[in-house]
Structures are given as structure tokens and as C-alpha cells.
Amino acid sequence: MKQIVITKKGGPEVLKVKEVSDLVPNPGEVRISVRATGLNFADIMTRMGVYPDAPKFPCVVGYEVSGVIDKISPSVDPKWLGKEVLAISKFKGQAEQVVVPLDQVFEKPKSMSFEQAAAFPVNYLTAYQILIAMGGLRSNETLLIHNAGGGVGLAALEIANHIGAETFGTASQGKHEFLKKKGLKHAIDYRNQDWKAELLKLTQGRGVDMIMDPIGGKNMKWSYQALSSTGRVALFGLSTATERGLNGKLQKIKMLFQTPIFHSFQLLLANKGVFGVNMARLWHEKRKIRLWVDDLMEGQRQGWINPHVDKVFSFKDIGEAHSYIEERKNIGKVILIP
Ligand SMILES: NC(=O)c1ccc[n+]([C@@H]2O[C@H](COP(=O)([O-])OP(=O)(O)OC[C@H]3O[C@@H](n4cnc5c(N)ncnc54)[C@H](OP(=O)(O)O)[C@@H]3O)[C@@H](O)[C@H]2O)c1
Questions:
Q1: Are residues 156 and 226 in the same domain?
Q2: Dist. CA 247 → ligand 1 center (Å)
Q3: 68, 86, 148, 279 — which has fewest CB within 10 A?
């Protein structure tokens, strides 16, 4: 079977498709014949050598797959054989086969394509954790989604629209029209405008009740400043670490120095909240995740959850797929198919 291997730190040319032996599931595990797998910004950061939680090179990454169970360990109920599923995999999902514990597997609704199912786990669980589980977003509140045109951004927009919150979003200009059609109320071109000044103008100086910040560094300082009283900001990414100029290690140090540190007294005096979200370190919370998936799948049945797949690349075009995201061309999810 084939796997996509990040052979070492570098540009898209370090990505290779390699042939390895078929996998055998351990007790409690199933093997999925992968039909589609998600490409995430974390994979781009891993290849660049700036992702803090990355496995050592050479490595096969991939946090999410959809496919068909084609082999089970003896302890698993045989009813699972042949089922169409989606699953979370901490790494190794970008392959023709992946083995995962059964408790990381969910039945795929018939109404979802394999591509949509692979676009679901990371983006929707992250957005759910931020907006619902930790952020408690309400219908009378305002929300700023940074990178609103990314996979997580679009998932968050669907959830916020369902809740009825007023949405603001930052994205490259070319994505604004699409985002407006998806229900984003106010789009801000953060690459050519001072997004904080624009947001304060749009809110008559009040700021917003919640901000999703996947950028980190000094952006996180501005996000905190742009919160109204009772506002909360979720830090869930550090994409600023991919900016060009410095080498990987120096870029990480610069980003760390620029990211603000919050004292609890400061939060107490300001009536503000700050929290962090890291799905890749949450897979042990199986019960919570299953409840969140159930809630989200109910949304899918009702029609307000609808994963947007922007582009599908075959494994052999993995370099192009990475460049597509790195060059900020994607609106929503990029999917890989074996
Ligand atoms: N903590 C977690 O559990 C978790 C889970 C999923 C994702 N994340 C983080 O959330 C962020 C977005 O993830 P995603 O999967 O939604 O992204 P994505 O679909 O891959 O979209 C990436 C988009 O981010 C924007 N962007 C911002 N800074 C960028 C940069 N320096 N280089 C290239 N593009 C940049 C670009 O759009 P615009 O220029 O239009 O803004 C780009 O199209 C990433 O930082 C990711 O690591 C965190």
C-alpha cells in the first residue's frame, strides 16, 4: 500500500509517495481502506519544520480519513467489516490504509460523500470545541473568525450562523464574495487593512464577544484588545510561524516572544477570557468527542452542517496540494485521494 511520506524538512519536493507492506490491526483496532484523507495547515507547518507537535522525519501525517473497514482484529464485532466510516487518526492517515482503535471510528452518513466525510473531523470538532464546548457562543453575541475562508473558518461560520450570532471574518480579498454567500455578515481584508481598526469601526468601538485566533504572535495581542467586556479569545493555531524571512527555529522564537502572556489579575480586571484549543491533544477524550460528533452529525442531517470541499488532489500531486494551501488559494477543505 502507498503512503505519503514527508522525508525531511523542506519545500513540497520533500514529499514522496512510498510503497510499504499492508497493515495488520492490533487488538481493538480496525483497518480502513482509505478513500479520502484531509490535508491540514498543520501538515504544511510540519513539512516546514515549524509545527511543535510534529513527529520526527521521515513521517507520515494525516489526522482524518474516510473509507471502508476492510480488516478487523479478532476482538472487534464483525458487523464493522465493510462499513463506510470516517475516523480520526493521530498521524498516518495520508495513506491507502490506516489502522485505528475502533473508538476513533464513526459511521459515515450515506448522504455524505467520502470527500466530505474526510473534511469533517478536524475542522468541525475544532470549531465545535471553540464555539460551543469552551466558548459558549450565544445568539445575541458577535464573533470574529480569523482565516474565515479556511476549513476551520467555514465550519465555524456554519455553526455560528446556526446559533444566530453576528459574524465578522478576516480573509484574503478574493474569498469575500464566497464568504458573504455563506452567510458571513462582515468580511475584512486583513492582508491590506488594519483588521482591528476596521472591526472597531464596524462595532462602534465596542469590539466583539468572541474571537477565534489561529495566527498567534502579535495578532493574539490585537485579538485580546479587540474583545468587548465578557469577551473571550481562543488561540488555536500559530500560522504566523510560517511567515517567510527567518529560518524555522528563529521564526518560532520570534513568534513565542510576540505572543502575549496573560496574568489572571489582568483578566479579572478586564472581564475577559483567554483559552487554548488543540484537537491533536484531545483524542483521549473519547466520550466528549463522540458526543460532539453526534451533535454535529445531527446538524448534518438537519442540513446546517455541510462540509465544503474546495479541491481534491490525488496522492501523486501531494506537492501541488501543499502549495495550494501555502499560497492561500484554498476556500475550505483540501482533500487527498489515493
Ligand atoms: N488547534 C487545533 O486543534 C487546530 C485544528 C485545526 C486547525 N488549526 C489551525 O487553524 C488554522 C487554520 O487551519 P485550517 O485547516 O482552517 O486552514 P486551511 O483550510 O489550510 O486554510 C489556510 C488559510 O489560512 C490563511 N493563512 C493565514 N496565515 C497564513 C500563512 N502564513 N500562510 C498561508 N496561509 C495563511 C490563508 O487564507 P487567507 O489568506 O484567506 O486568510 C489560507 O488559505 C491553522 O493555523 C491551523 O494550524 C488548529
A1: yes
A2: 20
A3: 68
- Residue 112 and residue 99 share a domain: yes
Query: Could you read off the pLDDT of 227-270 as tens digits, one per residue?
Result: 999 999 999 999 988 877 666 677 778 888 899 999 999 999 99
Question: Structural domain of residue 151, as residue ranges?
Answer: 122-280
CA dihedral (237, 240, 242, 246) positive or negative: negative
Phi/psi zone of residue 10: left (φ > 0), alpha (ψ -120 to 50 degrees), beta?
A: left
pLDDT, tens digit, 9 for 90 and up, residues 64-92: 999 999 999 999 999 999 999 999 998 99
Shared-domain flag, residues 206 and 222: yes
Cα–ligand 1 centroid distance for 23 (angstroms): 31
Tell me, yes or no, whether 45 and 153 share the same domain. Answer: no
Q: What separation in Å is there between the alpha carbon of 149 and the centre of ligand 1?
A: 9
pLDDT digits (tens, 9 = 90+) for 177-223: 999 999 999 999 999 999 999 999 999 999 999 999 999 999 999 99
CA angle 146, 113, 26 (to 5 degrees): 95
